[in-house]
Amino acid sequence: MHKFVLLLFLHEVYGRTQWTPDQAFAWFNAQKPYIMGTNYMISSAVNQLEMWQAETFDPILIDKEMAVGQQLGMTTMRIFLEDLAYSQDPAGFKNRMSTVVGIMSKYGIKPLFVFFTNGAIRNPANGIQPKPIQGAESAWASTPSANVLGDPTKWPALQTYVTDVVGTFANDSRVLGWDMWNEPDDGIDVNALMSLFPQACEWARSTNPIQPLTSCLFKDDLWTKGRNYSAFELMQINNSDVISFHE
């Protein structure tokens, strides 16, 4: 007689789940006196790499510009990160983020950090960045690069990046939130996005952050009555703790 043994394995995913609407409203109502801000890129940089690389990082100028933000009544700044700058120097990158968070906190401003975005430079590189072309968005860097986005074997490096960065600031009340992907279906491989985007959100949540995750909806007809949302837009909504949008 043959005996069969059935072994059951439980795979547990650590970290928190998506916020409920009540949690989202509670977070929003706790942001005093209000949430008002803008996208921020230091005026001396042509793109995210130039802002975050050690050689061109300029905390003195950031301090001056945050002082102006405070004078204008700003309480948040949406700031783009760059995975290449992280991969070049993870500890230094996080230290520079800490410096920025500290400067902003001094002026009562919280960063909304953006992980991924499309850009004019599809495959950027570390080092000296190209000069801008006047009147054109010519030097904004894609992150991740097209080469990485199209190659799932390179995604584990992105997992390390997201979990390390979010994990470092997961309990820091000076950080407003995490925008996982800026305008994600704007000219990017949707098939790759449909796979990578929910994974990125899962990576971030695995660190149990106190801050919300979001990803901006941005089509012009968002508020059209009876509009049907695309599969990707629904995925954005279903992976966000709070809903953000661009007009």
Automatic annotation (TrEMBL):
Residues 1-15 form the signal peptide. Keywords: Signal. This is Glycoside hydrolase family 5 domain-containing protein. It comes from Acrobeloides nanus. The lineage of its organism: Eukaryota, Metazoa, Ecdysozoa, Nematoda, Chromadorea.
